[in-house]
Amino acid sequence: MSALDRLTPAGWPRLREPAADGHTVGAHGMRHLNAAERVAEVGSDAYLRDEVGPCAAGPCAEGFDPRTFACPYSARSETSDALLTEAFTRLRGGLSVP
User: Fold this and answer.
1) Residue 72 near residue 35 (C-beta atoms within 8 A)
2) Angstrom distance (rounded) from CA 66 to CA 87
3) Across the strands, what pairs with 97?
């Protein structure tokens, strides 16, 4: 999930039903920024602090345990993968198929 600051209080209960059915409520970045580019631009600490931390903290405060991070635009790098696997047990990114 992203843009948590735009989620209304009514939105959290709407996420509980699919979670109760076994669906993952994961993180997607606070502003849906390209992880590889953003880490290269601002560094690992700033990316974690500004993009990942707030995105994971919101669901945690509501009782969710976001263990999955879906990389916006499927954009990844070795650096962003190493950084994100410190905070999450699963990364999701796309694979281009010709």
Assistant:
1) yes
2) 9
3) none
Q: Which helix (H) or strand (E) holds 91?
A: strand 90-92
- Whole-prediction pTM value? 0.82
What is the DSSP secondary-structure string of 21-66? TT----B--SS---HHHHHHHH-HHHHIIIIIHHHHHHHHHTT---
Q: What is the pLDDT of residues 11-21, one digit of tens each?
A: 888 888 999 99
Contacts of 90 (CB under 8 A, 6+ apart): 26, 67, 68, 69
Could you tell me which of 82, 75, 70, 81 has the C-alpha nearest to residue 96? 75
Contact 87, 66 (CB under 8 A): no
